[in-house]
Amino acid sequence: MSNHFDEPTQQFSNRGQAVCKSTRDALLPVAIIACHPDPNRLGEFCALDGLMQFGEQEINRHWPEFHTTTSSIGQGLSVPQVSRKSMRLVREGGLTFILRRQDYSAPVSLNGEVLQDELRIDQQSLEQGVELCLGDHVMLFIKCMPEPAMLQDDLGLVGISQGVQQVRERIGKVASMDEPVLIRGATGTGKELVAQAIRRQSKRFGKPFIVANIPAMQPSLAVSELFGAVKGAFTGASTDRKGYFQAAHQGTLFLDEIGEASQDVQAMLLRALESQQVVPVGSTEADQVNVRVIAATDANLEAQGENEFKQPLLHRLSSYQIFLPPLAERREDIPALLRNFLQGHWLKVEGSDSLPVSFEAPWLSCDLVRQVMQAPWPGNVRQLLNITRQLVVDSRGDQHLQMDPHLLSSLSHSSVTGEAGRVAEPATVKRRKPSQITQDELLKALQNQRYDMQATADELGISRGSVYELIKRHPQLRAVGDIPDSELRQAYQDSGGDLEQMTTRLQVSRIGLLRRLRSMGIDA
């Protein structure tokens, strides 16, 4: 069984291309600040509409003006190292342009090629996005796309790409309804974030939002965890116990990684969706529930046989679907995401969400940003979040943001690019049976992926649920739920609350560790 959601993601990508081609007149080059001596400006953008209206666009220290999605008031780059004199982008025809140096006196490069007199930018390059570096201080990412909309609320989804704008539109259309929603996308694309956005826009906002991580449930207890159990239903059931469905009554239940559900769970889920009734384990009476179900998967459920995923359940869940594009297909969003994550980590580490500003010796370099922009990001937004966390921690006390050489090497080796900065697809991992995975392989993969369960599963070519099962059998490993409270509190104290240190020390998932600490009342 493939756990990679390749086909629907490709369908989403193709749909986006179809939209572009059918609305070609609405497309125009958009310049996005990817690197700047003031890193708080990363992600600001400017639609270069002068190119389409007048056939040319000046670029200099003060023009064009860049702004955010929440404010139309903009400002120029305002960097001393950027020349006051202008270079020009001139429209040659269609979506092909010529970049001319003219009187611009400072160094310029386009996708690494130094600008002497002029450079040509063809339509294919512009559709993929080009990197325009103004000396060592500023990088602009220019891409042909629909003009980004001004927003009152970004729904917690950072970015201006067409893919993200489509996701926001779909959330707005379905949020007020009670229909099930199936969110589909690769690991780390933000499926739970989308589920939370749907809930916030719905009439169920303020009511329970319960997250059920299907692969994390023990197979023997999954039914009782979801639907509850009565006293005496099984060994250890000393009292009646509510399940996730009962806990989510009047609210929203998010079923993460629904493709990992067992056949028994699938059958009961289908009944619950159709009847809004659940039968606790050991009971003969059904509980009436009023729950909106949102499910998520990175698996191609259509390609699975009936013995793996029941098609009636798929049809019921997929009455409305939202497809999330991988990060490699929305590189124009990386600058804003990078700024957002850096500010969040900086706030935790330094107590301020305002990043360091220096026009003489920038805190953030164009070389580092180039590495980030060109990486294929198989772990998507979650991987970028983890990278930025390590960047901030590793650079504490330094004047410049620096990437660990090993981290830089891993990004460099994975960022194989073609002409015009096009990112190559990461190699597909061959699917394997869990029985083929040795204990040493499991331990090494967990260490390589910093105990991220989905990333470990991807490296090994098995499902995330299988990773949990292998951990249970491994003599050196344990689930976060098996760690005594006293050991967790001691590890928290010794590490000063640093989750990365705790994850490495305890050899457990960071997400699972975070949930366990919060359940103990520890602010992590």
TrEMBL record:
What processes does the entry annotate via GO biological process terms?
regulation of DNA-templated transcription
Q: Which residues form the Sigma-54 factor interaction domain?
A: 157-393
Q: Which UniProt keywords apply?
A: ATP-binding, Nucleotide-binding, Transcription, Transcription regulation
Give this protein's Gene Ontology molecular function annotations.
ATP binding
Tree of life domain: Bacteria
Does the UniProt entry include the keyword Nucleotide-binding? yes
Coiled-coil annotated residue ranges, if any: none
Q: What is this protein called?
A: Sigma-54-dependent Fis family transcriptional regulator
Identify the species of origin: Aliidiomarina soli
